[in-house]
Amino acid sequence: MRVVFVHGACVRNGSWWWRRTAELLRERGVPSVAPELPSCGEAGRPAGVDGPGLPEDVAAVRRVLRADDEPTVVVAHSYGGIVTAEAAAGIGSVRHLLLVSSYLPEVGQSLSDFGDDGPAPFLDVDPGTGTFGVRPELLVDTFLQDCDPEDRARAGRHLSRQSMHVITQPVGAAAWQQVPSTYLVCAQDRGTPPRLQRDFARRAGSVVELDAGHHPFLSRPAEVRDLLLSL
């Protein structure tokens, strides 16, 4: 078994966000990898009006999934669920999807289908550059309130601007319709309210709740590891 972690929006260095759970999995002999998402400026091209979007993110994750035929669990976090819906479709090695405070789009849906009328208050949207990002001053209180002080202090270094293309680009497949899936509801999440998560989770095969904020793989890594090992 191996785990592929697909990070959420407006961050980079997925391996940093994932590292606490990755270390615990490694102790149990389970390797993991966190692909870079081009729309977050991780693949050499800057995010923006002419920058990469969802298709490039999907291609990047599919390359990683196809690189190894070992049975794989994909952990999709937040926006990562949009990417994973298409990226994991038709990949025979993918045996389970773990969706963490995530979106489960139908074919043809985009990230915009899951939002309200306007951008969330913790986002800074700049149509001029074609990017959006998390407001740094709201990062900790919104997403990291249950994380340790070290992670709260360092997380800002791993934020990124992301191409606005990803908001409206639709997915071309819905892997969760074909692959067994588990939805992890983060009951203390201040970014994606639990009521919305529970609504999204209706599409998953099973649902688990954890008394954690938006990043349980940072704040509750042992519980996330145990959940993965049980799948």
Largest sheet: 6 strands, parallel
Please give the alpha-carbon distance between the first and last residues.
11 Å
Structural class: alpha/beta
| Unreliable spans | none
Strand content: 15-25%
> Largest beta sheet: what is the strand line-up?
2-1-3-4-8-9
Order of helices and strands: EHEHEHEEEHHEHEHEHH
Q: Please count the beta strands (DSSP E, at least 2 residues each).
A: 9
- The general outline is globular
Q: Helix fraction? A: 25-40%
Radius of gyration from the alpha-carbon trace, in angstroms: 16 Å
User: Could you report the average pLDDT, rounded to the nearest whole number?
Assistant: 96
Number of contiguous helices: 9
In short:
This protein is an alpha/beta fold. Helix content is 31%, strand content 18%.
